[in-house]
Amino acid sequence: MDNERLVYTLDEAFTYVGFGKFQVLLLLYAGLGLFPEAMEIMIQSFIGPAIKSEWRLSPTQESLLTTVVFVGLLLGTYSWGYISDNYGSRKGFYGVALVASLTGLVSAFSPNYLSLVTLRGLVGFGLGGGSVFVSWFLEFVPASNRGLWMVVLELFWTLGTIFEASLACIVMPRLNWRWLLALSSLPSFAVLLLHGLVPESPRYLCMAGQTADAHRVLEKVALKNGKKLPSRMLLPDNIARPDNEFSVPEHNPLLSSSAHKTTQFKSGFSPIYSLFSSRLIRTTFLLWVLFFAETFLYYGVILLTSELSVQQSECGSALSLQNARDASLYIEVFITSLAELPGLLISAVLLDRVGRKMSMTILSVLTFIFLIPLVIRQEVTLTTGLLFGARMFVNGSSTVACIYALEVYPTSVRATGSGIANGVGIVGGVICPLVAVALVTGCHQPAAVILLEVLTVLSIVCVLLLPFETRGRELADTL
């Protein structure tokens, strides 16, 4: 008991200082980091047809412009997560912003198709570090209201999609796709310029044995929030609380534990090995399947919205293709993106009240219910309403899944673990258009909807099998 009065942990520190002005500033920076990735995903819908017409590309060449971005995102999720876990989030921010901003701007001046494909792939690689911003912000938020503020952070993704649709609506009819690429790179430049003002994560600093630096960051947080830190000694959570679920074994020497962990998490593939440890292997595989299913569902619902909501009569009519090419596409994408806002609100209300697992289960069940009527062709207005509801709930479920993945992994592998899970989800995003669009345009709407329903059930099963509930749980530092 005497020792407990002499020390405090990082979780206790953030409980003392609360969520205040300091975290709001970090929220804005982390949100700014998510913004360009969402814009990049949306921009593919607008530049592809224009470039195809100007350069007379084949459908395969046009599709490659999108595929190469997803491949870049897939490689970037692990690469930037590894850099963040091993060398700190600030180095990850710098690399992400530098690569994304420069290649994004230069791609606007591409002289030919090959150079454009190469540069767009590099843009995707740079923006694959979105999970680094999310995991960094997570480590500054008190456990008591972590769920709410993580949902608020995810709101920046939706705002990014809405902003890109609005920007395309203004730029494309008046200028051209090169201007849209150039202007869309500006948020990444803003992330780069503000990089020097953001602090390193105290959890990373403690993991690296830099407890004094971590304490200085906490003092800045307390000062900005108008609070005071306890007059005790800061110790990493796993040292101060040896009963922590992810604590180091008791036989590890206390004084050498920080140095030992620093060597361990800086070794080549230790983050990967940790994901397959006896404690995490079940969670890791279930999260991979969950992220694949959720991402496939998310893009599947979006594709169904654009393919089905505009069909007035017969299957596969030319009307859907025409709408995908004219200016109304920008307004349509803008409106459908708004469906995600109530989904985020519902997830914010649920996840701190009923828990992460129950929230994902409820939202997935609602997604399933909204998709059921679409097995049979419905009237256009009803189809649009059902798809809006499905998109609302699948977006909420995906958001909670992202938060859960960040919370369940310890600090030493948080960015890597969540980044790889996102990468597996990206694979689902790549496969989805190939399968879903082929089914819908081939007059197989029931098969497309049934496929989405099967994936919804699969995601529910994965959630129920996940071994940990993370609501209100302190973040762990090591395995």
Protein described:
With 479 residues, this protein is an all-alpha fold. The chain has two domains: 1-234, Growth Hormone, Chain: A (Up-down Bundle); 268-479, Growth Hormone, Chain: A, CATH 1.20.1250.20. The protein has helices at 2-6, 10-17, 21-55, 59-87, 89-107, 113-127, 130-138, 146-171, 177-184, 186-194, 202-207, 211-225, 237-240, 257-266, 270-275, 281-308, 318-323, 328-337, 340-354, 356-371, 380-408, 414-441, 445-465; strands at residues 7-8, 233-234. Strands 1-2 form a two-stranded parallel sheet. Helix 2 packs parallel to helix 12 and helix 21 (380-408) packs antiparallel against helix 22. The relative contact order is 0.14. Residues 240-269, 309-314 and 316-327 have low confidence and may be disordered.
What distance lies between the first and last C-alpha atoms, to the nearest angstrom?
A: 26 Å
The major beta sheet can be summarized as: 2 strands, parallel
- Portion of residues within helices: over 70%
Q: Order of helices and strands, N to C?
A: HEHHHHHHHHHHHEHHHHHHHHHHH
Our count of helices gives 23
CATH homology group of the largest domain: MFS general substrate transporter like domains
CATH architecture of the largest domain: Up-down Bundle
Q: In one word, what is the shape?
A: globular
Brief digest:
The protein has 479 residues and is mainly α. It has 23 helices and 2 strands. Helix 16 packs parallel to helix 22.
Helices and strands in order:
Blueprint: H1 2-6, E1 7-8, H2 10-17, H3 21-55, H4 59-87, H5 89-107, H6 113-127, H7 130-138, H8 146-171, H9 177-184, H10 186-194, H11 202-207, H12 211-225, E2 233-234, H13 237-240, H14 257-266, H15 270-275, H16 281-308, H17 318-323, H18 328-337, H19 340-354, H20 356-371, H21 380-408, H22 414-441, H23 445-465
Parallel strand pairs: 1-2
Helix pairs in contact: 2-12, 3-4, 3-6, 3-7, 3-8, 3-9, 3-10, 4-5, 4-6, 4-22, 5-6, 5-7, 5-9, 5-10, 7-22, 8-9, 8-18, 8-19, 16-21, 16-22, 16-23, 19-20, 19-21, 20-21, 20-23, 21-22, 22-23
